Amino acid sequence: MAQTGGERSDGGVYGSAVAAAGWQRGAAGRADLRPITDRMLDLAGIRPGHRVLDVAAGTGEQTLMAARRVGPDGFVLATDIADRMLAYLDETARNEGLTNVQTRLVDARLLELERVSFDAAICRLALMLIPERHKALTAIHRALKAGARFAAIVLSTAEKEPHISESLAIARRHLGLPPAPFEDPGMFALGDPAVLRSAFERSGFRDVAVEIVPSSQRFASVAAAMEHRRNSLPEMRPFLERMSEAERDAVWKEIETVIRRFEQSDGTVIVPTERLVAVGTK
Predict the structure, then answer these.
(1) Which listed residue, 46, 75, 165, 193, has the most CB atoms within 10 A of its CB?
(2) Which residues contact 189 (CB under 8 A, 6 or more apart)?
(3) Neighbours of 4 (CB within 10 A)
(4) DSSP 8-state assignment for residue 224
(5) At 156, phi and psi to the nearest 5?
């Protein structure tokens, strides 16, 4: 299934074998994303027989959901810069007998797709991380048919995602680094609805709407929540690689205190989150 296109990339922090394997192991901890992912697919207007573009698909949980919607007469093209992520997607699609999924290794900024060839496009939790985002959005817009829609999910602000922002701040502090400034691209770069809406509109999308979606991640225990944190935050890796084993242990111990703030009386952990889902029409 996998094809190459555009320029190769190592996939950044998500491109290593360790990061890809961890992300795949953490799939169960992303179960809370199913409702908002269904909402994204609804907003994109995905129906049986559609051709769908999934940008920065990663291991492609949303790709497979889209593939089931479009059915055997439809098609989903999943692109990403991390070949190991796409390898997991290929394997899962084969195991599920989904023959309507194709993957392509390509930088989102360098998408070279046939014009007006897709009925819908999606991007789940990656748009805020893409450098020179306007290039990617323009390429998506160009590939869509007139009247087709692009829908994307992004993280909210750092204040709404303390389990992520505080984990990264702890690692930075242990390295003697100051708190991270607002960065674009970055995890929280599109957390302001006005900024997200503007990114869509500047790329030619009309009738742009942004929804704020509160949710929560549920884990059976603190240990399960910590395992998910270790697997599903590759942005930690560059910091941890600069530390001794003792320093890494200290970082994880401090992060555990953050996670314990969300522990319930029965030992389960419920972590509040907030995401934004946006949609625009060509």
Answers:
(1) 46
(2) 128, 129, 182, 183, 195
(3) 11
(4) H
(5) -75, -160
Extract the tokens encoding 33.
């994303």
Tens-binned pLDDT, residue by residue, of the chain (282 aa): 544 343 334 456 676 677 677 767 877 778 899 999 999 999 999 999 999 999 999 999 999 999 999 999 999 999 999 999 999 999 999 999 999 999 999 999 999 999 999 999 999 999 999 999 999 999 999 999 999 999 999 999 999 999 999 999 999 999 999 877 667 899 999 999 999 999 999 999 999 999 999 999 999 999 999 999 998 888 898 999 999 999 999 999 999 999 999 999 999 999 999 999 999 999
For the chain, give percent helix, strand, coil, nearest 5. 45, 25, 30
pTM: 0.91
